[in-house]
Fold this protein.
Amino acid sequence: MKRTLPQSFVLYSGLVVVLLIIGLPFWWVITGSIKVPREIIARVPTMFPQSFTLQHFEKLFQSTDFPAYLVNSIGVALFSTVITVALALPAAYAFFRMRFPGRAALYRLILLAYAFPTIVVLIPIYGFFAKVGLIDTRTSLVIINVAFALPFSIWMMRSFLSTVPREIEEAAVIDGAPARVILLRIMAPLIAPGIASVAIFTFIASWTEYLFASVLIVSDARRTIPVGFAGIIGQYQIDWGLLLAGATAATIPVVILFAFVGRWFVSGLTEGAVK
Amino acid sequence: MKVGLLTIAGLTSILMSSAAFAEPVSLTLWHMEQPPHRVQRMQELLDEFNKAHPDVQVKQEPQSWGEIYAKAPAAFAAGTGPDMLFAIPDFTTVIKGIDAVVPVDDLAKDLDAKHGFVPATIAPYQYDGHTWAIPAYNMAISMWYRNSALKEAGIEVPKTWSEWKAAAEKLSKDGKYGVGLPANKQLYTDQTVYALMVNGGAADIYNEDGSISFDKPETVASFEAYGELQKLSPPDSTSWTWGEAEACFASASCGTILQFSVINTYETQAEADAADLGVAPVPHADGQSESGTISYSNAIMLTTKDEAKQAGAKVFLAWLMEPANYGRFLTMEPGLFLPVTNDGAEAESFWSDPIVTKYKSQVETMVANAKNGKLFGFTTGKVFPSIGAISGQNVIAESLQKMVVDGQSAADAVKFGQEKMSEIAGK
Amino acid sequence: MTSPRLAFLFVTPALLFLAAVLGRPLLQAVVLSFQNVGVIGTTGSWVGFENYATILGNTAFWNAFGRSALWVFANAVVQTIMALGVALLLNQKFPGVRIARTWIILTWIVPTVVVVIIWRWLLSTSGGMINPLLIQLGVIDRPVGFFATREGAMATLVMINSWRWFPFTALMMLAGLTRIPGDLYEAARIDGAGAMKRFTRITWPLLQPTLLVLGIVGTLLSFNVFDVIWLVTAGGPSQATQTLPVLIYETAFKGYRLSEAATISVLTSILLMTFALLATRAMTASEEAR
């Protein structure tokens, strides 16, 4: 399978465009975070830094608890992801394969979670969480993140299940395997891409969630990265250097994390068993 | 099992009895001074206070202005609200509306007798027969410029709108903008537009009876003047908040801007030559003779129904307003937060801050400007609940956008504002 | 093939969780819509359908509805084109394809608050790179304000939002693409089908299930995008970007009319659910057709 010259041209120029669209803003932000303040806001901006300073990062780490925010964010995102996958997989399988009354209706009903603007449930949820003592806990964020990731996850996994050849499953049923075993031993590996995509979705959604984290968390030590970042934006004054350092610091950890697990995720996503 | 229960019972009684002796009151303070250096300074002050007052322990929980309008009412409704809460005048009306704030009449009186409140700072919190919060710091908008730039262009510091416009036109060259005025649907635009309205004789937006008096020739003239100046502003000014205006000034792209303070940014992000930084009152309408401005008195509300806590909070607030402590509180953001008391305006702890010392003359001008400060909805001594929503929905800024973005006439834009405000007030 | 009891065992944990966390608040919002509560935390009295009459007769609601429809449509078009293009590129074999597939999601892992600040800075005339870049490319001859006109503001917000979301869509599409058996293409090639024909006959139809789920859930998710709009324009200039979520937020938390906000939400969700039901019906129909 050889590409013709025009095909190669389209492929590589397309890749360059994508690289620029994604990469340029990151380049500007990361290089901006090491420029001196005057260069950051200069009327004629510089593509390559003319100055070098670590003062913004020093300020960031001296005066904020960024490492704590980071630990909170990673913890919340990981727990949310694991719980979501654990709840969504059996539910998706039941919705896909099993017969029970109200199946179709329930399957659609769960989408209601997205049909309601989240800001409206914010206040009742606050009241409810206050009653059960969950305000200012990281658990509350995990609960919220799972709730909002579940419907999509169930839908997405079901769509992946629907592509598994029926014969494979039927063979297992004839062998007399119980549903739990079919799901975990046979179906789960087959829909690894589905699980991977649901996991990525939940992880990132939890990692970036802002609204609930800003309202449900009260004390500084339990803040997540987005809320901690918002905290360094002053109401009347903006320290752009500090913000760029914060933006860099908010991005780098996931990038590092992703450098380790990303390959696994993506290969799970794109190299499923069906070939 | 039994032993365990007994131990717990014993422990509880010990804990309870020691509590009965010491009775330390712990207080939670919510403020919106979230930038890290402000939190740090606040913590230093709290540590000092807590050490000196073992019976009253105050802890801070910084929040953000973005969410507090939703978060605080939700927290009070759920019983998890703070004991003290920072406020600006319109926020107080909201918290008062849900009955979560307690009056501080006596404390305000005592502190006034002791330190002398600047009238413009406490007035927005005095209505319905009570004082609803203790002013903490003041902020007022001034006009900022560079002496060298004016000199180079051969112009004086503008005092009237037409002088300002002429100056801005002269300063607009080589890709620079003579003036930077925002037109975003955001609080900053409310503030800058109102700063011109105050200087055009349109300070009152309410009539005595609570009906809206926004639509009048003075407001229209102020909008027209603002529109003329806005045309000379950078093209991105329709999405500006305070930060962008400051950056524009700091990078010398904008010749003049209206801001509470640019000192910190000028010091850290620009040339930091104190002698070159100019500050003046906001120019007034050609027919007027003196300048006023918009001022935001930030205050602290008492939001606990518990009397022991109220007493503790009063001890803390009185301590905070002591000149020896108060100046250090103000300089958590040096050159931005201005004193609300006469004592504070003279406090050594305020003027000895390195930044304040370096920009002494500018800070003096700011303090002087702030004395003539007014705030929309809080000018007549009567406060109507609808100001919360008028302020919250940035109706003034929205009206301005009708003119700047939609190209309507100033009269039509002001008429839109009048209608929208009346609709809100009627609800 | 399996007993309903087992099915319930599979399905109830997730459903109970959802009902416990979201069920009550949703019900409460419906209750609120029949009351006249103003500020959060206060109580109100029953007013029946009064709020509904007010809202349905309110031009602000219908305008916001129109803008929401435009927002969803524009985002869908921009993101689908960008994402499909990227997914097709990444489905090729070239050196470094694994790295590209991994790092494509870079923009999506950045929290929205950070995205907003980055773009506010990049689009500004004080230190922003976009204006100088466009001037150098010869697209414009002097700095422009991206939010200075109604259309410009909407278009710029759609671009910012799409910049953040298209990698996610692309990745989901890529997952769908890789599940298309390679021998189908081989067979088509042997039959002499060109690239275009292979796309319309194989790629597109087999991508349908993924696209439909993405289309339905994506529409709902993008409809509810609030923070990007709120943090950049707050619905301005002159209400040009005031979509329904922005209107709801403003009504509830800035206008202190919580019940009216709840009413708009209920109406919004009826609308969205109707859309979702119609779309799922189409999806089931297409699934059964195959």
Remarks:
- Chain B touches chain C through 41 residues (CB under 8 Å).
